[in-house]
Amino acid sequence: MRTLEGRRVGLLEGRKTGELAGLVSRAGGIPVAAPAVREITRPDDFDPLLRRIVAGEFAVAIVLSGAGVTALFQEADARGLRADVRDAMAGMTLAVRGPKPLAALKPYRLTPQLMTAKPHTSDDLLTALDATPLAGVRVLMLHYGERNDAFGAAVEARGAIVEHVCLYEWALPDDTAPLRALIADIVERRLDALLFTSQVQFRHLMAVAADLGAADAVRQALARDLIVGAVGPVCASALRQGGVVPDVIPASPNSVSLVNAVAEYVALTEAEPEKELL
């Protein structure tokens, strides 16, 4: 049975804290939320970008972020340009990495021609782009809260003229007290599991832990005592680079699959000692 049975589960999600906490609660767990990320829009970037999109400057749009799509259309709405931007993007070749940008485009009746297969990595998106001629083509690349320079360079190496756009930035929350309290819970082993739904959550967690002089203690706790869940391979890779090997990576990179996979991991690890006794 999929259940977290009263276990305390740390959550670092910012925008969708309530949604993830609800999933943990329905699985029987006790969510302990401490947002590690705040998204800051960059309004100064919108006016010239929207004008260039409407003017048909770009032939291809590569969308790495659902939040980037949302920010783009919110600002287009505010300027009365929603229909114009939508029509211009409908005339582009759209390529997306993963389910989040795909879902973000759907309300605007935009269907990408190119989509990644699981596990939705940057390499998968490059493979999806193989059949698309890019030499001399102007490409709009909507990044997430920071530029993916390696992926951008790979697209430019194919001859594309890339406009790199970050419409929002990742920052620490204004109030880091909940995050600091969560770090104390990690170090003191008052949590049973910790879920990461983006790579930046891990970096921010470790940055605050370092400021508290607790970075090594956090790594040790995550390595030895807590169940660590990473939403997908990109997130998992960032954890490994930081010295933490995730215990759980779901087959599908979404929050529902992550919570279910952690619950199944708990059930499996509890069943193993019983089998040994038999």
Describe the protein's architecture and organization.
The relative contact order is 0.16. With 278 residues, the protein is of the alpha/beta class. Mean pLDDT is 92; it is low at 274-278. The longest helix has 23 residues, at 255-277. Helix content is 46%, strand content 16%. Helix 7 links the parallel strand 7 (138-142) and strand 8 (161-165). Helix 3 crosses helix 4 (82-90) and helix 3 (66-78) packs parallel to helix 5 (99-105). The strands form 3 sheets. The chain has a 5-stranded parallel sheet with strand order 6-5-4-7-8, with helices on both faces. A 4-stranded parallel sheet has the order 2-1-10-11, sandwiched between helices. The protein folds into 2 domains: 8-37 and 175-277, 3-Layer(aba) Sandwich (Rossmann fold), CATH 3.40.50; 40-170, Rossmann fold (3-Layer(aba) Sandwich). The protein has helices at residues 17-26, 46-54, 66-78, 82-90, 99-105, 122-128, 149-156, 177-187, 199-211, 215-224, 233-241, 255-277; strands at residues 8-11, 30-33, 38-41, 60-63, 93-96, 114-115, 138-142, 161-165, 168-171, 193-196, 227-230.
**Rg, Å, rounded:** 21 Å
- The neighbouring-strand order within the major sheet is 6-5-4-7-8
Helix fraction bin: 40-55%
Order of helices and strands: EHEEHEHHEHEHEHEEHEHHEHH
- Domain count: the total is 2
Measured by DSSP, the beta-strand proportion falls in 15-25%
